[in-house]
Amino acid sequence: MRVYIRTYGCKVNQVESEELAARLVAEGHELVRDEELAQLYVINGCTVTGEADTKVRKGVRHAASLSQVEQVVVTGCAAVMHADELAALGEKVVVAASSSKLNLATDLTATLPSALSFHTRAPVKVQDGCENFCSYCIVPYARGACRSMPMAGLVGHVEALAADGTQEIVLTGINIGRYCDPETGADLPTLIRALYEQGGVHRIRLSSIEPPDVTKALCNLLAEGILCEHLHIPLQSGSDAVLKAMGRRYTAAGYAAALVRVRAAAPQTAISTDVIVGYPTETDADFEATYDLCKALAFSKIHVFRFSPRTGTPAAALPPLDPHLVAARAARLRELSSELAVSYAQAQMGRMLEWVVERVDPVTDQATLTSREHLSMRISAADRITGELLTHPFDMMRSVSNISTEIPAPRSLEA
């Protein structure tokens, strides 16, 4: 059967779509890049915000409208939380809250798929689930309790990726700081060291890490050059009152202390973050505290999200703020993010950085590079090879974009 996979949402969803693709191919199905050729249309849906739900529903309706598509299968967090609503979108639609309904093993102890053709960077899922239950977040309800993949299996998987030419892996999960090897009890820093020393891959990056998990052991990995000098550490708010209302497990001072540890270990580390504006209890003073803290901490990038009430979470029952006020706050913070991104890039100007060649465009004769700090730049191809490692000074004038935390999906999938 010809299968088209469309992925919405986070890096974990992307990894799970890649695993799904690998297993479908192993079962004899054909993956297609053109949805017009698909007989089976798989949608891996996200439900983290109301906007995400809207996109998934729109995508399902579109897939069901394609005449050649025989069946639309919806999986992922959206399928877990909105099974009945999604199933009602058309006769072709089947909701599979677990991809096991597609005859695929989904247990975390299952055999990992063989290495896919990433060439330079591959996401590696090490953990699933979250038990933090922040007041605004639907993810723990959709993903369930924390589970970790066995370290031995992960080492073998990374060895296969390295043998296939992958230069960098990105460790992903819903709450990867809670990693705990089910066989030995090893924590995340121990796993990272094992992957570096035994897996044979050159660079290891984290997708995201919670502030309480930015430990001395993790920072030591930065100091030793085992971890790439780029961390994404969600802040959500710079107000202690809002953090408490959100159910976050740290204070603004505690968060700032984590960044002090990071920069003491590796001063040039790029640190990006998430901030939610417009939480129902957020006052003007709370927002100003967030703005001031973000400015003081000099992030390389701020991902700004407007509060989105998720049915079933405690925060959804709170009266919302004026949407115009929330929009204005978001605009201010996004403007600050742009300023901070430029400041970070300016500070790197002229530094000799390690780059990996992501791709070479024969038409423009340009090579696109990504640094350990996740800066991007284009230079003359000059016989460069995809996957090649090189040292080159950073030039803002050649920058593709400011710091980004997005991981491109493999070419066989649509993200």
Low-confidence stretches: 99-118, 402-415
CATH topology group of the largest domain: Transcription Regulator spoIIAA
Strand content: 15-25%
End-to-end Cα distance: 21 Å
Shape: globular
**CATH architecture title of the largest domain:** 2-Layer Sandwich
Summarize the structure in words.
Mean pLDDT is 88; it is low at 99-118 and 402-415. The two termini are 21 Å apart. α6 (151-163) runs parallel beside α7 and α11 (284-297) runs parallel beside α12 (323-348). The longest helix has 26 residues, at 323-348. Helices cover 34% and strands 20% of the residues. The strands form 5 sheets. Strands 2-1-3-4-5 form a 5-stranded parallel sheet, with helices on both faces. Strands 16-15-14-17 form a 4-stranded antiparallel sheet, with no helix packed on it. A 3-stranded parallel sheet has the order 6-9-10, with helices on both faces. By secondary structure, it is an alpha/beta fold. The chain is globular and about 55 Å long. The chain has 4 domains: 2-102, Rossmann fold; 114-207, Transcription Regulator spoIIAA; 208-348, Transcription Regulator spoIIAA; 352-398. The protein has helices spanning 11-26, 50-65, 77-81, 83-87, 139-143, 151-163, 188-199, 216-223, 240-246, 252-265, 284-297, 323-348, and strands spanning 2-7, 30-31, 40-45, 71-76, 93-95, 121-125, 127-128, 147-148, 168-172, 203-206, 230-232, 270-277, 301-306, 352-361, 366-371, 376-380, 389-393. The chain has 12 helices and 17 strands.
